[in-house]
Amino acid sequence: MERNHYSKDPAKQPIIENQLWSCMERIYSLAENTDQFRSVVVHRDLWFNNIMFKYDPTDKLRKEPTDCVLIDFQLARYLPPCVDYLCALYLLTDRKHREQYEKIYEEYYYQSLQAKLKAFDIDGSKILSKDQFKLSLNHYRLLGLVWTGVLHGFVNFPKGVLDKLHHEDPDTYTRMSMKDRDDFALTYYDTDDYYRQRFDDVVTELLQYLFNFQ
Description:
InterPro entries: CHK_kinase-like (IPR015897), EcKL (IPR004119), Kinase-like_dom_sf (IPR011009)
Strand order of the largest sheet: 1-4
Helix content: 55-70%
Strand content: 5-15%
Distance between the termini: 16 Å
Organism: Anopheles farauti
Order of helices and strands: HHEEEEHHHHHHHH
Protein name: CHK kinase-like domain-containing protein
Largest sheet: 2 strands, antiparallel
Domain CHK kinase-like: 1-119
Oligomer: single chain
Shape: globular
């Protein structure tokens, strides 16, 4: 947070320092089971490495996948479906892209869910109305932003860094994976443009969401 441009603004720095953690406390209740919204088994880790795409063998350039499957369900929980939508949205897109396409993706996701349920002779509007879906998006946006920030700090290291560390220093790899990766995150934030841009992207939107910063 301290490296984000909002933290360097004298007017905004004390707001962040004094209010951030109290505003973030709601994240714990958002991660728990709820009776407020319809829940399903959600994956919660929808980045590229956990999605396997299938292509038509004649599609040599692999432009259009014909199907996909999800792998690695170790973070799965019983939560509203919007959690997976939000995690995928923030993990796989940047702010500029979201500003242009988020409403389109939101509509596409909801209509695709309705079509899938209809294929099983289920009235999807009774399972999850569009109004309820939109309410859940607003309710769980903080979870999507925070969880994406956590994952960005792990999945965006330069190619080969984690594999090398896993083989050459497994103790540090375990510590960095399970306990504390602050030193790694700060090092690559300061030295790797892509890592810094992806981290800043979600941190900036999180601070705007919490404090209405402009």
